[in-house]
Design goal:
There is one protein chain. The chain is of the alpha/beta class. Helices cover 16% and strands 27% of the residues. The protein is elongated.
Length: 264
Amino acid sequence: MAVHPTARVDPRAEIDSTAEIGPFVVIEGPVQVGSGTRVLAHAVLTGNTVIGRDNVIHFGAVVGHEPQDLAYSGGDTFLRIGDRNVIREYASLHRGTAPGSGTAIGDDNYIMAYAHVGHNVRMGNSVILCGGAMLAGHVEVGDRAFISGNCVVHQYVRIGRLALLRGMSRTSRDVPPFCVMDFTHTLRGINRVGMRRAGFRADQIQAVWRAFVRLFGRRANLKLALADLERDGPTEAVREMIAFIRDSKRGVCFGPRDKRALDV
């Protein structure tokens, strides 16, 4: 275990022998740091936080601090981080609020500078959270979602798999899988590039596009449009979209008022 002599490490912490702890790092509380993980200068790790293998936590990041929630009363809450995540400069990832609850980050995520992951967030795998993006409490983010710079996601919102939020957009409604969102919870099209990179065939992408147009390309009754899609024998990806929309508690994003605003 390589611990820089200026680092402050709580005796309750469990640091793997292959981890690296850089200068002026503060580790406070029963933090666990897995094998191969590197913690760079001035980062702060605190609380009931478990960090997996081969992560890199950059300068000044704050990981596992108390939630920014007036309801927090000091109970035992947690943060769990998987493997091979990159947490860049001055990002903040907070623990849960209610006693026994926590925040969970999967594997292979890239969290850029000054991004914020609030209390009780659930983040999947291979998510990109760009600089200054903010996830409020209880947000759920599906695998391979891309949340661009300075986006704001309201509490309890769900972001579907392979969804893309354009820079400086904001949402208080759920963003369905594979969709592109901008401005204020407005859907513009589908994430064709992300789907290709994820291995979707051209015909699979086209099926999702046709479903998107039927659901959001015109102002129509969403429940009726979903029922029509189900009767047509949808593909697996389209079924995923349908299930996500049906499960929404906050309601999903709207399509553009003008169909000409769709990204074709």
